[in-house]
Amino acid sequence: MLNESVSAAVDSEMKGLISDLQTLIRQPSISAKKQGLNECASLVSQIMVKAGIKSEVLNLDRHDSNQNQEAIAPIVYGEAKSKMNPDAKTLLFYNHYDVQPEEPVEFWDTDPFSGKVEGNYIYGRGSADDKGELITRIKAVEYFLKETGDVPCNIKFIIEGEEEIGSVNIEKYLSKYRQKLAADWVIWEFGYVDEKNKPIISLGMKGLLYVELVAKGPSQDVHSSLAVLIENPAWRLVEALNIIRNRDGKILIKDWYDEVREFTSDELDSISREPFDEQEFKRQYGVDKFVNNARGIEARKALVGMPTCNIAGLVTGYVGQGAKTVLPSTAMAKIDFRLVPDMDPTRQFQRLIKHLNNYGFGGDIDIKFIHGESSSRTPINQPFVKQVQDAATEAFGTEPIVSVSSSGTGPMHSFVKMLGAPCVSVGSTSSYARIHSPNEFARIDLLNKATKCMAAIIEKFGKQ
Fold it and tell me: Which of 131, 142, 245, 254 could form a disulfide with 51 if both were Cys (CB 3.0 to 4.6 A apart)?
């Protein structure tokens, strides 16, 4: 069971947790805009040092990446070695300090970077994703150091500043600092809690292929009366989009599903037992049906283990107030494909190019590779998974849900490949915390429970 003194310390130190979280929220750190990243990395390191954790800010230089050094966000490294158990295995906490842009600002009820507290809620960009989760990890270690002067196992932190733009340099960091970052297991950067306050332990993440399609027309925007003679690139782009995915969500690209790994019997059993309130989900997101009318276990299988094709952005022509009769010179679509084991983003990108070429779109539509990331999934029967389950049960007071995979994407595959360390996600984020949206929030009671959960994981890991 969770050490009672550590549990009591968590309860008594919640003001400090909230204060540290507010400090981080109030420092904008938007990787998409290259805003405040060095400043936030320094703040994170200072908070860790204050907690008794050895910390340093690490950088890549121009020899490590084809980017300018100034364009690469630093990572923050932290370490707490066990004195009583120096030969213990090492637990690594992976988090990120960068956040999504705050726009659209007009839909926020308060300053996006205020860290405003109202009752059980703290609001602001990063309150949940991912500064709130990060603070729970730091505080769990801090409480051990304050109460006992030691930690039960060896602990490391890696906190990056580019997760929200695809972790474009994380493998370079993992390669350069491989020995420093070596670990046996990784607690991933987040974990959801459902509407019934049950923690959801995720054992994987989907991969991603992000592309940009640009259709070109006349050399400049022209009067729309010329549409009788000049082809509109927006129509051309729509035609291309229509041959990539059908209305049922099926991706029409040849061989797209060839490498998709089937669920194991253990995974299917877990999926069948995983509760999923379809009506509440639909109510929260304002929809009345799912893609292809999926329901029951088919909806759950799609969420955790099926590929997707999504139009993330579509821009062309005049989109301002009122009318403007214009035929645009270009039309652009940003598309993200979610991938599952064992789909390779580079291979899938080549299939997309071939597919569009075969349908005659190779000459007038430019296809740009923006980002690719492979999927990862930890087996359910790994012993560490059971330890995390037990820790979550103790901290949250209810049996957790074990999910085969998150529906989102992160650089989990890089950690498994580079460090050989399996990853498990668990944390404090409400399923409807409005992450990436206006009025993002964290629940203070869940931050408290997640901190206790991290402490319980550390205790159990130290007894191996």
Answer: 142
For 5-42, give the DSSP string. HHHHHHHHTHHHHHHHHHHHHTS--BGGGTBSHHHHHH
- Shared domain for 242 and 220, answered yes or no, is yes
CA-CA distance, 454 to 464, in Å (whole number)? Answer: 16
- List residues bridging with 185 in a β-sheet: 91
Q: DSSP string covering 386-403, please?
A: HHHHHHHHHHHSSPPEEE
- Is the pLDDT at 2 greater than 70? The verdict is no
Q: 348, 373, 398 — which closes off a domain?
A: 373
* Cβ proximity of 188 and 340 under 8 Å: no
* Amino acid sitting at position 46: Q
Same-domain check for residues 379 and 367: no
Residue 233, both tokens: 């690139």
Render pLDDT for 27-65 as a digit per residue (tens, 0 to 9). 999 999 999 999 999 999 999 999 999 999 999 986 665
pLDDT at residue number 195: 87
- Let me know if residue 279 belongs to a domain: no
Angle between helices 444-462 and 14-25 (to 10 degrees): 110
pTM equals: 0.88
- Please check whether residues 88 and 156 belong to one and the same domain: yes
pLDDT recorded at residue 10: 76
333 and 380 belong to one structural domain? no
CA–CA dist 215, 364 (Å, integer): 6
Structural domain harbouring 397: 4-205+375-462
Tally the domains of the chain.
2
pLDDT at residue 69 greater than cutoff 70: no
Per the prediction, the chain carries an average pLDDT of 94
Same-domain check for residues 32 and 135 = yes
User: Which structure tokens are listed for 5?
Assistant: 């003194």
Candidates 1, 461, 448, 9; CA nearest to 199 is 448
Tell the residue number behind the tokens 């390191």, with chain if given. Answer: 45
Q: To which H or E segment does residue 326 belong?
A: strand 326-327
Taking a C-beta distance cutoff of 8 angstroms, is the pair 330, 217 a contact?
yes
| Statement to judge: residues 122 and 185 lie in one domain | yes
Structure letter (DSSP) for residue 64: T
Q: Which of 322, 345, 373 is at the close of a domain?
A: 373
Stated as kind and residue range, the H or E segment containing 216 is strand 207-216
**The residue count for the chain:** 464
How confident is residue 364, by pLDDT bands cut at 50, 70 and 90? Answer: confident
Residue 343: name the closest of 308, 315, 294, 298 by CA.
308
User: Residue 171 burial by CB count (10 A; 0-12/13-18/19+): exposed, middle or buried?
Assistant: middle
Q: Are residues 95 and 16 in the same domain?
A: yes
